[in-house]
Design a protein that fits this description.
single chain; 9 helices; flat
Amino acid sequence: MTKKSRPTSKTENKLKKERALTQKRKDLLIQQLAKYPIVETACKQADIGRSTYYQWRKEDEDFERLADEALANGKLFINDMAESMLIKKIQEGVTVPLIFWLKNHHKDYNEKIFYIHENVEKELTREGRITLARSLINSQLKFLLNGEDEDIIKEAEKQQREFDERRSLGPDSEEKNPQQKGV
């Protein structure tokens, strides 16, 4: 019996070592993601394949959460560093960073175009109200018509029924069955 339990012990030890090694590799990758918030770059730095990274994300919720946090923190770090460098270049009198900063942080230098739309309230025509009512009825939103005139709702329902009947008969129904026209 000693021989049978011994291989299990060796196997267990080997599995423990593999799990510990995998955890160390995961931790290293998390550190690299915080430094280099680009998956491919962090994987290269940690000498881990991208497919392994995505497999770990899929299989390990804790790793996925830690990787997302590391990526977010890494991006914040890079943004801070980039802004610091931008400000340093502005202080040195370099023109391009100065223009970049003004275009993105000062409304007078911004090249974005803003359109101002004035909402002119116009009364819907009777046909427009019927069309709107049909759309709401067709979308199972008839309850939104609670303030609408009953004749508008009835007309919309009538038009919708006629439309549904025509659709159920098919596109050539009037040409094939001329007797039904007069009925």
